[in-house]
Hints:
It is a single chain. Helix content is 9%, strand content 38%. It is mainly β. The strands form five sheets. Strands 15, 16, 17, 19 and 20 form a five-stranded antiparallel beta sheet that branches. A four-stranded antiparallel beta sheet has the order 4-5-9-8, with no helix packed on it. Strands 7-6-10-11 form a four-stranded antiparallel beta sheet, with no helix packed on it. β6 and β7 form a beta hairpin.
Amino acid sequence: MESNRRVFLAAMAAAVTxxxxxxxxxxxxxxxxxxxxxxxxxxxxxxxxCEMVLExxxxxxxxxxxxxxxxxxxxxxKQKTELTFTVRDPRTDAPVKNxxxxxxxxxxxxxxxxxxxxxxxxxxxxxxxxxxKFRYTYQFPQPGTYRLVGDFYPDGGTWQLSAKTIVVPxxxxxxxxxxxxxxxxxxxxxxxxxxxxxxxxxxxxxxxIFVHLTNAEGLERYLGAWSxxxxxxxxxxxxxxxxxxxxxxxxxxxxxxxxxRARGYRVxxxxxxxxxxxxxxxxxxxxxxxxAADR
Length: 295
């Protein structure tokens, strides 16, 4: 067992070193993808991973603070609640009023409940007002903690993911215990299963998630991408939004994901077929490198 562990750890270290070396950008490439800045080109065009238009001379990354106002207060379950998002320029603290379109929308809002139940998953699109604020009306299904992430692109800045926590008083949600679940399941009008490489994903090391669709004829881009993914850790601290690294409209896709911590993750996937949006999830346990060596 100890010999196998040493071989495993050496192989993983070599893989990581090789991956980093392969990703070193050439110095003469100047067009970049705002969402995948590691992709560079000497010519204008679109990112092969997410279809966003490549941009010339992206500014240095800077975090744009996102304020969240809630009305009415206190929040009550099953009551209409208005969420108002204000994005601020980190240099001036002034509200940002101009945004670039990201996958057909100016703002993507993802939200999950702390119990990670399917009925508490949301992918919505707040509307930008003349005052530069985004608004979204929602009825929280039940009391508990909700985590949300705003996905937006301030004009003159860089693509942003900003997370917030909302607590609806009156009760708590049960923390989920996530175990490996990659099995085939049926969605609204198509089927799906996944596999991963490595089979036991490791925190901080790239995991390749292979998506296998059935009855996928008529698959369409959904909001500019062949699929959208949201990965949420079982404590809802980590929220990651991603798109396929490899996809061509066929039944096979691949996501390349770095899970930051050794925990369970629920990975939500969305697809569109014949104008119908299919949403499902899989549970992926992620290990530290020594625990993965024993599996």
